[in-house]
Amino acid sequence: MKPGMNRYRFLVLAGICLLIFLLAAMVINLLSQLRESSRAAEDNMQWSISQIDTEFANLDATLINQIANGSFTDDEIQLRVDIALSRLNIIESGRAAEIFASSPEAAELLAAISSFSRDAVALSDLPGPLNEARLVEMQQLVSDARPYVRDIALLGVRLSAQQSEMRRDNFARQLSRTGGAAIVLLILMAGLMLLLDQLLRRAARRDAALSASSKQLESTLAASLDAIVTANEAGEIIDFNTSAERVFGWTRDEIVGHTMEDTFIPHRMRDAHNNGMQRYLKTGKPRVVDAGRVELAALRKSGEEFPVELNITTTQDGDATTFIAYIRDISDRKINEQKLVDARDRAERTDKAKSRFLTVMSHEMRTPLNGILGVLDLLKTTTLSPQQERYAKIATSSSEILLEHVNEALDITRIEAGELQLTLQDFGLSSFMQGLVDMFEPLAREKDLSVSLDIEPAMRGPYHADAGRIRQILTNLIGNAIKFTNQGGITLSVSGIHGQDETSLRFTVTDTGFGIAADQLEQVFEDFFALAHNDKRQSRGDGLGLSISRRIARTMGGDIVVKSAPGEGSTFVLTLSVLRAKDTKAKAPAPLETDVQPVPRCNILIVEDNSINRSVLSDMLREMGHDVHEAENGLDCLEKEKQADFDVIFMDISMPVMDGIEATRKLRINGRNAKTHIVGLTAHGREEYREQAVQAGMDRFHTKPIRLDALQVIVAEVTSGQLTKLDVSQFPQAIVEMVDILGRTKVRGVANAFLSELETLIGSLRHDDGQAEPDPLAETVHKAKGAAALLGQSELEEHLESLEREARLGRIADRNLWANTLDVGAERARASFDSVLGPESDTPL
Fold this sequence. Notes:
By secondary structure, this protein is α/β, with parallel strands linked by helices. Among the domains are: 3-200; 224-329, PAS domain (Beta-Lactamase); 421-580, Heat Shock Protein 90 (2-Layer Sandwich), CATH 3.30.565.10; 733-842. 60% of the residues lie in helices and 13% in strands. Strand 11 and strand 12 (570-580) form a beta hairpin. Mean pLDDT is 76; it is low at 534-542, 584-596 and 724-731.
């Protein structure tokens, strides 16, 4: 029977015993009172007390009689005195004394009678025979005492009657209470008996349910898909279900009595298994036992090793421990997982290959575009006929649109990697939209299309947002409108609603083109979807513009929707929430035409491996009136910079022999032009090399192609002394945010602590002989990795993550190589901190 049921039975029996004890105590008390009442009747104290008056009367009569006759009999007198005194003694002791004990009146009477006793005893004890004088004196004593004796006798009778009455009342009350209590106790006993009966019935039902559950459990274990093995403390198998027979190949009769160690534990794991069992039995600390599901290897009867998922639990039977192992064969799952991993790896390789292809193609296409746009800018500086000027504008507009498409290809990789960054700036909406109209007007005029602009007066701005991304979206929408329209025109309109701090802008691009079928309204936003005319000719080649535009819009918190019908044109609506700028003199976003004041003649070095780009850039700068020198790569740059002082160095990022990053770093350390303004140029995106450019020491960073107006602004800023350093508002973003929240001093303290811990880690790697425990080292590396992530050091974070993985596996290949890698990363991190926080000596204390 279960311990809980035993406790219930014990409590019921204890209650019954307690009731019996209480009933017995009440009966004993009742019998005691009954005896009290019976003894009072037997003693008949009323008669004994009343006799004292009679005896004193007899004594008085005897004395009077002898005095009158003149005959004195000593014996008779003595007898009567003794009888009177004995009666007096009765009322002074025993039950009579108890009756008089609580009466003050009795105490006074007894005191007077006691005085007679003393005097009578003293008189009767005088030597010699009795004479008349002694008899007269004795008679006088008796006469004096008789009133007191009569009063005490009457008082005793009255008190005795009262006490008898009280005892009878008490006995009656006690008898009533005892009877009532007996009835209650009998009811309680009956209730307890009923409760005990219910408990017994419940126990019987539980036993039946337990028996049924036991049979059901046996059936469940037999039908379980998992192998279930039960073993004792010695590891001997005491139960083995049907699934275990199927999984391991042993029958129950064959394996029961054998140990797990000798049957299905692989040889290489037997020592660990035995040590783990003993450790658990001694300490009770779970590692595999009672630690949830773990994946291990097991042996079949055939000797084949296979992967299993194992969960071991324990039960206690007294002091003995029983182990229950739930084992699942996961061979098929592991095979499927490996297939999925292989498929994932193939997909990742394909995706990376696609991203590399897009990156390379965008770079390779931007490089010749640099030459085309540069030559077109130079061409516009020459004297042209109206027709030639028109051709130049068309070629420039087409090249700029092509450049936007190249940027789209690069944006794909950024969006898919979650690395698309927004650059916020103040801009005026009117000049911004007019610039778009001016850019597309030559292309629209070629098709005899009109382009009109309508901006609500209240929506003219200025605003604070990523104007470059907004222009990119609208460029796609306007470009598509022109391509899909053969007659009529394109209307651009801007409306919106002003909130308290933000404005919801609504950019609408409406055309009179072919229109879009209802079933294709959402398809046009899918990757690589291209609309076709009725003759099945595609009007757009890549099918990426609208897809990328919607992704960028949603990244900015907005969206793009379309309304269209075949033959009725299309309307694309871009909605964005933007902040209103406080500066009412906000500038339109670059690149727009900018009037630049004439600048002094500068000495400029161009470092570019592409001869066409180098030639075009040189011609543009010479056209501006500057002295230009050329270098083919970073190594050539270091040689040329030793020969002259330069005002500006235009440094290409990607070059053979030595790239621009390495050349800038060496030039900043000990070059003759260490303080010269360096402008980084790249055909890749800005984000790819922003971090390295900052760390190397570049002052600016510009994406190819670089236009004539941008060159004029850069050189003008250098000569005026108002240099604009490389925009670090986005790098490293984590540090910038920390500075905004904690302040520069605290962030410098965090950075210094991180660098100190990193130096300690590097030192431990250099001096460690490889015998250190892997877990502590892995935890140290993990801590450093978290700090690197917090401080925005993504490259260093990746190195630390790889080192942590090797440390946890206990197979660090070359510790010195890792130390050198982290040392380089630490230097870059220090430069990164200095770029945002300033040199450590300049940080306020």
